[in-house]
Amino acid sequence: MTYSIAMAGKGGVGKTTLCGLFLNYLAQTGKGPILAVDADPNSNLNEVLGVETTITLGDIREEIAKSEFAEKNPIPPGMSKQEYANFRFSAALVELDNYDLLVMGRTQGKGCYCFVNDLLRDQLQKYYQNYNYLIVDNEAGLEHISRGILPPVDLILLVSDCSRRGIQAAGRIAEMIEQLDFKANKVCLIVNRAPGGKLEQGLLDEIAEQKLSLIGVIPMDDSVYKFDADGKALVTLPEDSPIKKALGEIIQKLGI
Question: What is the spatial distance between Cα 91 and Cα 68, in angstroms, rounded to a whole number?
Fold first, then answer.
C-alpha cells in the first residue's frame, strides 16, 4: 500500500523547502521508491531538489484540451486522447535513483478541462500505486486533492511560519480539510523558522485556539538563505544543519 503525504500552507512559509527535505530524508533512509508531485501552480520543488524539468502535466492538459483547434494537431492520426495522455505522461515523469518527480503546472487557457483532468487522474492512479510513498507539495487550497485528481492522503502536514497570521491560515486549511471530508488519518502542524527553535506563549495559545496538533518546530536556519542565494539545491545542506536535524526528528516522531 502506498502511504501518501500532502504538505500545505500559505505562500512564503517554507512549505516547498520542507517538502523537498522531507522527500530527501525518505530517499536517503531507503524508504523508496517514492513519487513526488509538485501540485503548487508556482512550481519550484524541482529547484529545492536540484532537478531539471521540461514538461508539466499542465502542458499536457493544454495540448490535449486545445488539440482539435490547433493549427497542427499534436495528437498523431489514429491515436486517441487517452493513448496520447499515457504517452505524454510518461515523458513528464522525471526518473531519478531514489524517487520520481511529476510537476502539475498550471492551466493557462479558458474553457472546460474536466475530460483532460480525468485522463490525468487515471494516469496518476495507475502510477502512484507502484511506490511506497507519495509526497505532494500543494498550494494552500489543496485543489488537486479536493477535485479528485490526486489520490486520497494518509497524512496532511500544515506548514506555518512563526507568525499568528500563519497559524490562523493553517487553522482555516484544517477547517477546509474537515469540511471536505478528506478522510486523512492524521493532520499535523509544523511551525517553520522559529528563532532558536522556540515558540512564544502567544503562538502556542493561538495553536490551541485553532485546535491544531503541533508535531514539531523548525528553527531559523541561516544556511537555507545562503544556499538559496548561491543557487544551491537545498537538499545538499549539511546533514547536521538545524533544519535537517529538526525535520528528521519530526519524521521519526511521525513513525514514517
Answer: 21
Residue 66 identity (one-letter amino acid):
K
Peptide bond into 77 cis (omega under 30): no
pLDDT of residue 157: 97
- pLDDT digit string (tens) for 208-240? 999 999 999 999 999 999 999 999 999 999 999
pTM of the model: 0.89
User: Measuring CA to CA, which residue among 119, 104, 105 is closest to residue 67?
Assistant: 119
- Which pLDDT does position 107 carry in this prediction? 60
Q: Scanning the structure block, which residue is given the C-alpha cell 548561491?
A: 230
Let me know how long the chain is: 256
- pLDDT at 118 exceeding the cut of 70: yes
Whole-number Å distance between alpha carbons of 28 and 213: 27
